[in-house]
Structures are given as structure tokens and as C-alpha cells.
Design brief:
7-stranded antiparallel beta sheet, two-stranded antiparallel ribbon, 194 residues, globular, alpha+beta
């Protein structure tokens, strides 16, 4: 299986992929993550956003992309549940003024679904069929808390696994407005409460 972790963040249906905002210091810790053995009960994601953007309930997903030799690539999405306790964010740096951090974990049902998918991939390997598995985090549904124009919309995404044991910055201060496609898509985000 592929030990690299791809992290994706998006506004509405737009995705950031492979952006250059991944801190170099995070790469060695992320490279230790093994999708076939990581403890799913410890898998956590945190998204730091300007307060003008808020993830909608159920809008943060863990996307798992699997590829078995000779077959088409498949993507399975798993729901992430927001964790509201302060202790769930204890290892995270405080957000800058005007930003908020949202922390998530897999729901028990989706952790079981992920485990079944992972077991199927391991079985494929035992049968001699090479495969890979990549993980991505997608915040797909946002609402706007404020319609005022913004000069920047920096997003930071953290990941914690049983291998990292604490949150690791995967995307650091990526300005959504710096990408023309993302900036254009932000106009279509509905106000919160609608």
C-alpha cells in the first residue's frame, strides 16, 4: 500500500491538491503513516479556518482512494464527526485572531466501514494483486458567516494518527484567495443559517 498521505481541502466542491503549503518539517512524520495498520480510533483531523468560513455539519469527509492492479481507481468517502470538547484540541496551536479550529474523528460506523475496506485491500495483496491506498481530507460543505470582502482566507489542516501521536500540519496557511479557481468558487458559498 502507498504510505504517502494526500490531504485535500476544498471550498464547496473545489479541491486543493498537492499544494506547496505542506511544511517540509511535517513530511518525515507523515511518511510514517501506514494506511494498512494505523489505529483508526486515533485518527483525527483538524481544520483551522477564518471565522468567515464554517464547515457545515457532515461536510468534512475522509476520502480513501484505492487502486488494485488491473482495476479502475475507486474513491470511498467516510463522514467525520466534529469533536466539541476542549481536550480534543489540546495538542493544537491556538488559532490566530479571527480564526477557529474544528476537530474531527471518524464516526464508529464509518471506522468499521474503513476497516472493512482496509481488510479487503490486505486480502487483495495476499492474493498477489498489488494495490495502493491514499487518504485525503476534504471539507466539502461550507457556509459564509460574513459577506464582507476578505483580503486573505488562510486555511491550515492538521492530521493525527497512531503513528504521529499528535497533530501534524499537513497544509499550513494556504490562502484560498491565492488560487483563482478556488477564489471564484467562494462566491457561490451560501450564508450560514440557510
Amino acid at each position: 500500500m502507498n504510505r504517502l498521505v494526500r490531504v485535500l481541502a476544498s471550498a464547496a466542491a473545489l479541491m486543493l491538491a498537492g499544494c506547496s503549503s505542506v511544511p517540509l518539517t511535517s513530511i518525515p512524520r507523515l511518511a510514517r503513516i501506514d494506511a494498512k495498520t494505523t489505529d483508526l480510533s486515533m485518527l483525527r483531523v483538524a481544520v483551522q479556518l477564518p471565522e468567515v468560513l464554517q464547515p457545515r455539519s457532515g461536510g468534512v469527509k475522509l476520502d480513501v482512494v484505492t487502486k488494485v492492479a488491473g482495476e479502475a481507481e475507486a474513491k470511498t468517502s467516510f463522514s467525520m464527526m466534529e469533536m466539541s470538547e476542549a481536550r480534543d484540541r489540546a495538542d493544537l496551536p491556538p488559532p490566530p485572531l479571527g480564526s477557529a479550529t474544528h476537530a474531527y474523528r471518524l464516526s464508529p460506523a464509518d471506522a468499521a466501514r474503513f476497516e472493512a475496506l482496509r481488510a479487503a485491500m490486505v486480502e487483495q495483496g495476499r492474493q498477489g494483486r498489488r494495490g495502493s491506498m491514499g487518504l485525503g481530507v476534504a471539507a466539502k460543505e461550507f457556509c459564509r458567516a460574513n459577506a464582507a470582502p476578505q483580503s486573505a482566507l488562510p486555511v491550515t489542516i492538521y492530521l493525527m494518527t497512531s503513528e504521529t501521536k499528535s497533530f501534524v500540519a499537513v497544509v499550513k496557511d494556504f490562502d484560498l484567495l491565492s488560487d483563482p479557481a478556488l477564489a471564484g468558487g467562494l462566491d457561490s458559498i451560501q450564508p450560514c443559517g440557510q
